[in-house]
Amino acid sequence: MTEARDLFTPTGEASAPLAERLRPRRVEDVVGQRHLLGEGRPLAVALESGRLHSMILWGPPGVGKTTLARLLAQAFGAEFIALSAVLAGVKEIREAVDRARLAREAHGRATILFVDEVHRFNKAQQDAFLPHVESGLFTFIGATTENPSFEVNGALLSRAQVYVLEPLGLEDLDRLVVRGFEAEGIDVTEEARGRVAEYADGDGRRALNLVEQVASAARAAARRGADAPFVEGVVTRAGRRFDKGGENFYDQISALHKSVRGSDPDAALYWMARMLDGGADPRYLARRMVRMASEDVGLADPRALEIATRAAEVYERLGSPEGELALAECVVYLAVAPKSNAVYVAWGEARRFVSTDASRPVPLRLRNAPTRLMKELGYGKDYRYAHDEEGGYAAGESYLPDGMQPPGWYRPTDRGLEAKIRDKLAWLRSRDKEPRGDS
Fold first, then answer.
1. Nearest to 260 by CA among 337, 329, 325, 313
2. Is residue 352 in some structural domain?
3. Res 427: pLDDT
4. Is the pLDDT of residue 279 over 70?
5. How many domains does the chain have?
6. What is the DSSP letter of 414?
7. 50 and 155 part of one domain
8. Could you give the angle at which helices 282-292 and 247-261 cross, rounded to 10 degrees?
9. Listed ranges 68-82, 107-121, 286-300; the one with the highest mean pLDDT
């Protein structure tokens, strides 16, 4: 790895954005992504072997997907064709194919076709690349911020290796920020650099944009330097990395749900705060808490469901930010409540059984008999009215279809109220085994 002082020598026009002017010139100059570019790592091995393969670069904005694709093309001496799935269509794809064919036939050059935001292409557009990837006309590199498992069709996915690019760490961001302020001719304190790196939230492009913003403000104020208070006064903190409806959204709600299930109130509050800070709809979080109360707390503490529904109602009445406190109270209660998924499991087993089983008739004794004909046909005959039995329980009676054995789907735990439910059911089952006289 090159030293920080050798990185990012300005290469663009003076009027270009700072992020463009400091774009790395070599693969070795890329900051971060050591899990892919470090010694013995996949892309380093590909460069050393001289054999490049099709790939999909998956990661958040500002971590170097486009830069890396350009530098790979440069390192392999390949023609570089870039398409944006936001703007391109079938016409542009055909033109790219023709250009790649010309590069091979006229100049003997390999081609790298880079498709930014590849997840925005529909299935037919993605399929258009397949025969040319198969024939080796070009090496395909796609970039996406969305999970390729969901957004890229299987045929293309099977022909490309997926590499996950990670948000830049504070150390990597600091290296970018140092070079940025040097290029802008502004002296900054270490604390000021730290603020910029923190506000960038893993996004290298955002870090350099913030450097440019601070430098512009410093020059306007006739300052040659910037300290932390100056940075805080100039820079507006962006929301934490979050994408409503995207991969990050579902990762965070999963972390929130698992924190509640794992009985960790601090972690639950953290993920809830992260989602709200990123712009998640509090009503969505309230609905998920109702789900958590049903799925993970269940009958171990039936009050959890009541508290979750009440918290949702309070939020509807108060809105943000006041109503968020009720949601926080709810998520803490759910986290510390005794846990049981026994009803959740039982319901799943019952649904699976019914979906594959025959349509068993309701036994005559359990049928309603509102008419004389129904009574004459035996509807309701021999039904035992539980309230008239000892203890309000018709011991030995079956309420399942005739011939169906008790499936035992509901298996209460020994936690919370469900421990008492378990004991009650065990006592009732013991009564079923007792000999009884005619009723």
1. 337
2. no
3. 92
4. yes
5. 3
6. S
7. yes
8. 40
9. 286-300
Chain Cα centroid distance, residue 366: 48
User: Rounded distance, CA 363 to CA 367, Å?
Assistant: 7
User: Is omega for the bond preceding 321 within 30 degrees of 0, making it cis?
Assistant: yes
Q: Is the pLDDT of residue 247 over 80?
A: no
**Residues 148, 64 share a domain:** yes
Final residue of a structural domain among 145, 164, 183: 164
Residues 6 or more apart in contact with residue 32 via CB below 8 angstroms: 63, 64, 166, 168, 169, 172, 204
Rg over alpha carbons for the chain, rounded to the nearest Å, is 32
Q: Say how far apart CA 189 and CA 203 lie, in whole Å.
A: 21
Instruction: Evaluate whether residue 345 is within a structural domain.
Output: no
The reply to whether 327 and 396 lie within a common domain is: no
* Per-residue model confidence as pLDDT tens digits over 320-342: 899 999 999 999 999 999 999 99
Specify whether 331 is located in the same domain as 369.
no
Is the same domain home to 92 and 145? yes
Indicate the angle between helix axes 265-278 and 247-261, nearest 10 degrees: 160
Whether residues 317 and 393 share a domain: the answer is: no
Secondary structure of residue 202 in the 3-state scheme: coil
In a domain, 122, yes or no: yes
> d(Cα 89, Cα 103) in Å, to the nearest integer?
21
Residue pointed to by tokens 């007792």: 434
Cα 306–Cα 309–Cα 310 angle in degrees, nearest 5: 80
Q: What is the pTM of this model?
A: 0.64
* Same domain, yes or no: 306 and 421: no
- Residue 111 bridge partners (DSSP): 79
Of 21, 23, 22, which Cα lies nearest the Cα of 13? Answer: 21
Gap between the Cα atoms of 66 and 116, Å rounded: 7
What are the DSSP E strand ranges found in 68-195? 79-84, 111-116, 139-144, 161-164, 187-188
User: Do you know the residue count of the chain?
Assistant: 439
Rounded Cα–Cα distance for residues 64 and 7 (Å): 15
CATH classification at residue 268: 1.20.272.10
In terms of Cα–Cα distance, which of 283, 212, 279 is closest to 246?
Answer: 279
Q: Tell me: the pLDDT tens digits for 401-417?
A: 999 999 999 999 999 99
Q: Are residues 283 and 398 in the same domain?
A: no
Out of 146, 164, 182, a domain closes at 164
Cβ 363 vs Cβ 380: under 8 Å: no
User: What does the longest C-alpha to C-alpha distance in the chain come to?
Assistant: 102
Residue 269 lies in domain: 247-336
We report the CATH number of the domain holding residue 47 as: 3.40.50.300
